[in-house]
Amino acid sequence: MKATYLDPGIGQYLIAHTTPPDDILDALALETREATGESAGMQISPDQGRFLTMVTQLGRARNVVEVGTFTGYSSVCIARGLAPGGRLSCFDVSEEWTAIARHYWEKAGFADRIELRVGPAAERLKELPPEQTVDLAFIDADKAGYPVYYEILMSRLVPGGLILVDNTLWGGRVADPTVDDDGTRAIRAFNDMVMADSRVTSLILPIADGLTMIRKH
């Protein structure tokens, strides 16, 4: 249960009334815990995965970008929602963790629809073809880099396109005035930046650790 700011009973009720993950996602979650230990907390939650699939489906997204792939749970969920002929471009710095992702892309039958670019996302994103637009993007990487990724993606996002950003409630710490660490400051600054952006309409959803949905005008 990642939504630690919610009453635990409500959180468990929400999970119990969300369509559960299938065997592939369950196996991926288990392998992630075994292979990455404490870092497994970076994996999105099952309810968040379900949401990503549904949003991708509803938007009929064909050109999707993910910044921060980890072991592949979110990318599998996004790929399941792609419109016919759609493609997902993934960006991550870890060869080790994305090797797990590649394995599960094969198992899920999406290896031919997903492209992985390993390296600093701020640099690799700029290597996308100049004509490539983005219908939907999901950002779940280093928090200090959020503003950079946001601006690069916004320049390619089609009118009406969506950017989804993870961890924007940061365990509820963003609303606690007694908390002043680097990560919390980074998330607060990003949230304030989005609110001040006249190009978009946004809202923060209390899903998992907070998920901001941003629609370009």
Structure summary:
The protein is an alpha/beta fold.
Mean pLDDT: 96
Instruction: Find the count of extended strands (DSSP E, 2+ residues).
Output: 7
Residue ranges: pLDDT <50 for 5 or more in a row? none
**End-to-end span in angstroms?**
34 Å
Largest β sheet strand count, sense and barrel closure: 7 strands, mixed
Apparent shape: globular
Number of helices: 8
Helix content: 40-55%
User: Strand percentage, roughly?
Assistant: 15-25%
- Gyration radius (Cα, Å) is 16 Å
The main sheet orders its strands as 3-2-1-4-5-7-6
* Secondary-structure-derived class: alpha/beta
Order of helices and strands: HHHEHEHEHEHEHEE
Could you explain how this protein is built, in words?
Helices cover 41% and strands 20% of the residues. It contains 8 helices and 7 strands; from the N terminus they run H-H-H-E-H-E-H-E-H-E-H-E-H-E-E. The chain has helices at residues 8-16, 23-36, 46-58, 73-81, 95-108, 121-124, 146-156, 182-195, and strands at 63-67, 87-92, 114-118, 134-139, 157-166, 200-205, 211-216.
What is the element layout, followed by pairings?
Blueprint: H1 8-16, H2 23-36, H3 46-58, E1 63-67, H4 73-81, E2 87-92, H5 95-108, E3 114-118, H6 121-124, E4 134-139, H7 146-156, E5 157-166, H8 182-195, E6 200-205, E7 211-216
Parallel strand pairs: 1-2, 1-4, 2-3, 4-5
Antiparallel strand pairs: 5-7, 6-7
